[in-house]
Design goal:
The longest helix has 34 residues, at 22-55. This protein has one domain (19-94, 105-234): Ferritin (Up-down Bundle), CATH 1.20.1260. With 235 residues, the protein is mostly helical. The termini are far apart. Helices cover 75% and strands 0% of the residues. The protein binds fe (ii) ion (2 copies).
Amino acid sequence: MTDWLSAFEESLAAFEPAGHDRSALGLAAAGWAERARDEHASIAAFDRFSLELLAVAAPPELLEGAHVAALDEIRHSRLAFALASTYAGAPIGPGPLDVDRALEHVGSLAQLAEATLVEGCIGESLAAIEAEWAAEAATEPAARAALQIISADEARHAELAWATVRWASAEDPALTERLSAVFEEQLARAVAFAETDCSSVDLTAFGLLRPVRRMALRRAAARDILEPAARVAFG
Ligand SMILES: [Fe+2]
Ligand SMILES: [Fe+2]
């Protein structure tokens, strides 16, 4: 068994439900189950990404990164379903994934660059930063361990996304202006959505940040990390 998995499973086995409020445990299970389904869908996103790269003759380093990232997402999905199952006290796993339209638009360099910018450069960067903050705030050892692994992996996925965008821009310099505009528009959208904090139960101990806290952290990350990165990338 790999080191990360055995260390995680040890802390999961040591989890003591009796020390927690039942409704908080139920909400923590639901929160991690939702995250697990997103992570599971991310496996397909990287499978699709590797086909998109092949379709535009991308270099082998990017292809290798895409395949490694898909394996990372399998790991995230396993971690998140294991946490959800432990908190629920019953097994929770993935259902069928609708992949019917997964290969629409494959073959367009512009489409690949735009999607990578939005989902990777912005989405994976914010995911890495949020997971890092959630890990620091979590007091449950298994949730903290999972988030530390997820955060490090998502940061690598963001780097892969930037490398892909740089390669696509070098292949077709005419893309740069459009990508710069898309970045500005989508970053504003990523930090503008209004999540309401209607629950009185604080799940920070389980690695689930309150929505208002997440938004504040996202805005700080956009200002301090993503906007400077875009200035370097697009001038
Ligand atoms: Fe992930
Ligand atoms: Fe990721």
